[in-house]
Amino acid sequence: KDVQKESEPHVYLSKEEVKEKIQSYNSSVTDKLKMTLNANGIYTGFIKVHLELCRPITVQSSQSQGRCAHSNNEAAFYLPDGCVNTLHISSTNTVREVIEALLKKFFVADNPAKFALYKRCHKEDQVYTCKLSDREHPLYLRLVAGPRTEMLSFVLREHETGEVMWEAFSIPELQNFLRILDKEENEQLQILKKRYAAYRDKLEEALGGVWKPG
């Protein structure tokens, strides 16, 4: 289980320190996703973001796949587990811009305010997560941590239930969510009915064996 961790203070690096860190970073890269330092001091590179979304997302119907509930030209569906996306960004891009870029890449019509970007790291046999503020710069965090994803990885999630901005959802979105929840509730109910029917059959069979005349 993830352990929540407070955000660490931002340490500003000089241009020379950035150059040295980029050289060190590139020498350790194993997937060819290196960083590039430009003459103006801005650097570019890649980050991988794990998509861990519990609620359905809304996309254009022509782009939707899998189980979905349609509404006009949009559809709500669940992303499969284990989705990872790679983004090419610059050191000036903020968390909010990264979230917007991810949603645009997946043709997601949902309001970016519904989502949050987390950083995840492993330390002393614990997995720590920390929600990043909209003003933080993910590529800087990637540079400081190095290219190893076990040292730092990024995760896109919805805001916690208590933080959900329900007013950011449109009426068709909410109706889609309700239809999906109703369908899942019925599916789970049928599974439970079959499970308990099987238990009842086995119990009756066992009772029949006990009371069967010898």
UniProtKB/TrEMBL annotation:
Listed InterPro entries: RA_dom, RASSF1-6, SARAH_dom, Ubiquitin-like_domsf
What the entry lists under PROSITE patterns is as follows: RA, SARAH
Instruction: Give the Gene Ontology MF terms in alphabetical order.
Output: zinc ion binding
Where is the protein localized? Cytoplasm, Cytoskeleton
The UniProt entry's GO biological process terms, in alphabetical order, are: signal transduction
Q: Which CDD domains match?
A: RA_RASSF3, SARAH_RASSF3
The Ras-associating domain covers 71-161
Q: Which UniProt keywords apply?
A: Cytoplasm, Cytoskeleton, Metal-binding, Microtubule, Phosphoprotein, Zinc, Zinc-finger
Task: Give the source's domain of life in one word.
Answer: Eukaryota
Q: Which Pfam families match?
A: Nore1-SARAH, RA
Query: Record keywords: Zinc included?
Result: yes
Q: Supply the name of the protein.
A: RASF3 protein
> To which species is this protein native?
Geococcyx californianus (Greater roadrunner)
Q: Which gene encodes it?
A: Rassf3
